[in-house]
Amino acid sequence: MSTNTPHAGVAVVAARAPLEIIQVPDLKPAEGQVCVEVHWVGSTPFDLHQADGGLRVEPPQILGDTAVGVVVKSGEGVEHLKIGDQVFGFLPPVHKQPSQQEFITVPAHLLGKHTLTTSACLNFTLPFPKPEKYTPSDANTPILVWGASSSVGQYTLQLLKYYGYTNVPVTASKRHHQLLRSFGATETFDYTSPEDIHRLEALLASESQNGRRVNVLDNIGSVQGSMEPLARITPPGSLVAVLWPVIKVHAEEDIAPEFTLDTQGVVNWKEGVKTVGVSTHSYEANELRKRDLQPLIMPELLAQGIITPNATRIVEGATLLDRAQSAIDILRRREVSGERLVWRMKQA
Ligand SMILES: NC(=O)c1ccc[n+]([C@@H]2O[C@H](COP(=O)([O-])OP(=O)(O)OC[C@H]3O[C@@H](n4cnc5c(N)ncnc54)[C@H](OP(=O)(O)O)[C@@H]3O)[C@@H](O)[C@H]2O)c1
User: Per the database record, which ranges form the Alcohol dehydrogenase-like N-terminal domain (predicted)?
Assistant: First the structure.
């Protein structure tokens, strides 16, 4: 329900047009909802897909799916949050409350209590809390994490380590290899080095010859940057999970991006390779994750130091619009490396 007091939001008004500030009505929280004053937001590749590619955009479309802020109003029936709590949130677009606005009114289960910003990308069926002495039955199965220095890759790696996976080769630029080893990478390969890719291919082939199915998590989903090299080196019968959307053409200043959801037909996989597209925005489809992921699991993973948040790069700018536009420009220039872009809604 609208209270008619407007607040500012950062919006896409047309694909590849400069962002604009628009006024949005405040919403009164209904049962199970809270209103949060947004202090910080993270800018992710999804913002660029929306700003330049029109992905899930209905102009004027406010941007953003991650936020940190303070609860300022609460509806009936909210148990784990109260007014004044500092919270972080991961906001699937289906709720139509994107983060890059001064206030969001959302179901309380989308929020957790912690002061750190995170881009949660958990898609696991592993038990939480982890039972004592838990070891997965397939602990030594090879899981290649392609693009491990990405935000999603860093979290995936740390969770695999926590749950006891012991055969986790990764690709990333060389400068991130040491950090990624501390997060659980068992072998590191530079995806820009043909020699490294050759070594990785040999490793995967030997795993497959030893009768182990190779599993791959492609955190990049770029036809040229990850899927074509993966199609060349992934042995027959492997399973490849790709983070949607598949990027056929990258956004450039003068080039519109192109996406597809087709993970199987877009490159020539070897015989019997199965692919699947992954969407973190639909995590609420699983009742347990819907209930527990943000309120319980994420704060616990952070508090116990099981996962370390991404390094952050603060995007500065004199106005809200300057900061929002700069973040999009940095993403478009593909300057993000092992870090999450974050910026303030209000200048300090
Ligand atoms: N479907 C979903 O629910 C969902 C959720 C989150 C993300 N995504 C998608 O997943 C992708 C990654 O998202 P993110 O937020 O994790 O990205 P990010 O952190 O912004 O990604 C930047 C990283 O990508 C790495 N990278 C770029 N090109 C690469 C390549 N060809 N091979 C290997 N690594 C490469 C860079 O590695 P170096 O610095 O090591 O060079 C850099 O650290 C995006 O396309 C995003 O849209 C989808």
Answer: 31-88
